[in-house]
Design a protein that fits this description.
There is one protein chain. It contains eight helices and no strands. It has about 210 residues and is an all-alpha fold.
Length: about 210
């Protein structure tokens, strides 16, 4: 019999129980699971699939996948919300790949558990010049991320790309909440300073325009 870790919070225990009941085919448990987690997963999908209507369709497909795969959830390997978030992210990215599009991951600020669900990101246009600028920024970001400590990189990845709150990141990493908040804050400061220096170098490398 699968048992969840003793240090999980009440929410994780509830989601794990709901998943185990879904694995037994309990539709009422599935409805409750959807109610407890759909806002979080929808925000994750919207950061990848920017079209709201398509994101809503994807969310339904994701929960069908969760329903079918509930029996495979292993609490020894991950927490329930992390497991469901992984399914949502992979399903959303796969949908973009099938449409021959590149996923556009939009970093959303990490939030505390008592914060309201994040608002959907506003659509953004992208011409050729903007795409080139984004490519340059991506290379600079990759370089700057390498300057972070492993703990900072993992904290930022969980908070910004998996959409976890500070408390969920702390729970995932088995670290005090204050420590995780400090890691994220210092990581963002380091990234901002590094990116500012990269932008200054790029500006200095640009040839001057003739007057």
């Amino acid at each position: 019999m699968k048992t969840e870790p003793q240090d999980w919070n009440e929410r994780s225990r509830e989601l794990a129980l709901l998943l185990s009941r879904c694995a037994l085919g309990e539709r009422r448990a599935f409805a409750t699971l959807y109610q407890r987690s759909s806002a979080h997963l929808f925000a994750v999908v919207l950061r990848i699939q920017r079209d709201r209507a398509q994101a809503e369709e994807l969310l339904q497909e994701i929960y069908v996948n969760i329903w079918k795969a509930a029996a495979s959830f292993d609490p020894a390997h991950s927490q329930p919300l992390t497991w469901m978030t992984s399914i949502a992210r992979h399903r959303a990215i796969d949908s973009l790949r099938r449409a021959q599009a590149q996923p556009q991951l939009v970093a959303a600020p990490a939030r505390d558990d008592d914060d309201p669900a994040p608002e959907p990101p506003a659509p953004e246009g992208g011409g050729p010049l903007e795409l080139l600028q984004r490519a340059s920024e991506t290379r600079a970001l990759t370089h700057c991320v390498e300057a972070l400590t492993p703990q900072q990189r993992q904290s930022v990845a969980l908070a910004f790309y998996d959409g976890l709150s500070h408390a969920e990141v702390a729970e995932h990493l088995c670290q005090p909440l204050g420590t995780v908040k400090s890691w994220v804050r210092r990581a963002l400061q380091t990234l901002r300073q590094c990116l500012e220096r990269a932008a200054q170098r790029d500006a200095a490398a640009q040839p001057g325009e003739a007057s």
